[in-house]
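Suppose a colleague, Dr. K., hands you the sequence of a protein chain of 212 amino acids and asks what its three-dimensional shape might be. Before reaching for any lab equipment, you can write down a predicted structure in C-alpha cell form. Begin with the sequence itself:
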Amino acid sequence: MTYAENLWLFFTLLFGIIIVPGMDMVFVMANALTGGRASGLTATAGIMAGGVFHTLYAALGVGFLLHLVPELFNVLLLAGAAYIAWIGLSLARSSIAIASVEPGARLSLWTSFRRGALTSILNPKAYLFMLAVYPQFLKPQFGPLWSQVLIMAIMISATQLAVYGSLALAAGRSRDVIVASPRATAIIGKTVGVVLIAVAALTAWQGWASLA
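The predicted structure, expressed as C-alpha cells, is then:
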C-alpha cells in the first residue's frame, strides 16, 4: 500500500466515523439552534481543539511504543484489528439514532468553545477511534512520525470543520433531517460498520504478514 492509498483509507474511515451522530454532533446542533451560526461554528472550533488533544496523546503513545519496543507494534496492529472488527460488527447489527435536540439557554461564544472542547475530549467515540484505529495508519516506512501526525491532524480538523461546520450553517434543516430520519442514521451506522470490518481485515492481514 502506498502512502497516498494509506491516507485515502484513513480519510474514508475518519469521515465515516465523524458523520455518525454522536455527542459532538448533538452539541453543535444544540448551539446552532440556540445561539445561531456563530455559536455553532464556535462549538465546532472547540471540538476541533479537542481533536488536536486526541491526536497528540495518540501520536505520543505510538511514538513511545515504536521507540521502546518496535516488535510490539505488529501485535498492536492485530489487537487493534480485532477491536475494530468488534466495533464494526456492533454497528452493523445495531440501529443507531439520536434523540430530539431541544432549544436551551444561549451560551456565550467562549462558553460554546470551552464546552465544545470538553465534549470532544470526553467523547468515547473519539477514544475508540484514536486508540484502535488511528495507530494502524502511522507506519515507519512512510517517513518521520511527526510529519505523518501533522498531515493526519490536518485531515481530522478539516473533516470536523467540513461536517460540523456545515451542520452549524445549515442548523434547522440539518436538525430535522437527522432527528426525523432514524432510518437514515441507522443506514449510516451500518455502512460505517461494514467499512470498519473491511479495514480490520486489511489491518490484520498486514500485521500477520509483518510477523510472518
